[in-house]
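Box S2. Input/output pair 1.
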Amino acid sequence: MARITLIIAAGLLLAAGCSGQGEQAGDEDSEVTRVEGVPVSTAERPIVIIETDSGDIVTELFPDVAPVTCDSILSLVHQKFYDSLTFHRIIPGFVIQGGDPLGDGTGNPGFSLPAEFSSRLHVEGTLSMARGAHSIHSAGCQFFICLGALQSLDNQYTVFGQVIEGIEVVRKLAAVPTGAMDRPVETLYIRRMYENK
């Protein structure tokens, strides 16, 4: 019972922490937009590398189940949007979250994405889109990496990729002590994100 309560509470914290993200989105009927103008990968399963001071996290994207999200992530990656941003939230046993241009869980890229739910499950190493609690269509640029199986997030958040190498780096980042608002006590930089072509 305590574990279920912890999972529900962590899920609420995840949603609440993103409540400022995508404020332009409004309610679920709001218009969603896509990033335009930057060519994205034609690879069936693009590989994106997240460089951190603790090592590299190699991820595989799933455009077959989240095409709009993957297109947007790759466009932001090609624009170097994520370079020098941070992992601003750590919830042990739950997720590490990053990709916020403001670094506090309230930032967004100026647009929002539609929810793309699929049969993909939230397991250790899953990449999924953070969003505001007010709308399932409020994801923009913030994402999280799961630290274990999280069934409570399935069909609630858009799964768009999976860590295929460097899960030990994710675990090392997740072990950093946190303070208020689940913020790590040291700055955990995303030094660079790039597509491995």
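Box S3. Input/output pair 2.
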Amino acid sequence: MERLWTPWRYDYITGERPPRAKGVPEALNAWLDSRAAADLPDSGDLHCVFCNMIHSVDFAVAQGMRAEEAEKAALIVRRDHNTFLCLNRYPYSTGHVLIVPYQHADSLAGLPLATAQEIIVTAQRVDAMLRQIYNPNGLNFGLNLGEAAGAGVADHLHMHALPRWSGDTNFMTAIAGTRILPETLDVTWAKLRSAFAGMEGASD
């Protein structure tokens, strides 16, 4: 008998153990505690998964947590001047990442030119990295701008990047609405983090 073990999907499917604020993992709740203590509205929740994520990481690092530890908790693979790269916590396929600007904007037209350019440069690096690690048959890159276009987080744009394989839409997806992911998110994070570090070392 075959068994599929995908425990990270359980909370998403059942709605159990929801985070106190979207984008803030339990390990980084100190940021929310500090904002609640300051009597900020809604306990300091910025109501944006990406804004909450990056602010909670920055607060943790400022309070003495190692940057790598804080970024791993938030599944952030890499940070640049205007954007950051993180794993999709509920991936469509293994290696599904998001390129996210720090600026809270819902359109490409609303971004400074330097930020828009950095998104594309990062996408080029992600292309090379995903091909190197996963040897896929193809890749999907895309932006969903607005709820009508399929955006899950419509008010803060982000680019999806994910590897694809011939036949990866099999009967489990078509009939059972289930995708099979062969590695856990912490393994994916470690692979991508190491690959980016190697890329930077090679370019020095």
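Caption for Box S3: The beta strands are 76-79, 83-87, 97-101, 138-143, 159-164. The chain has two domains: 8-74, 75-204.
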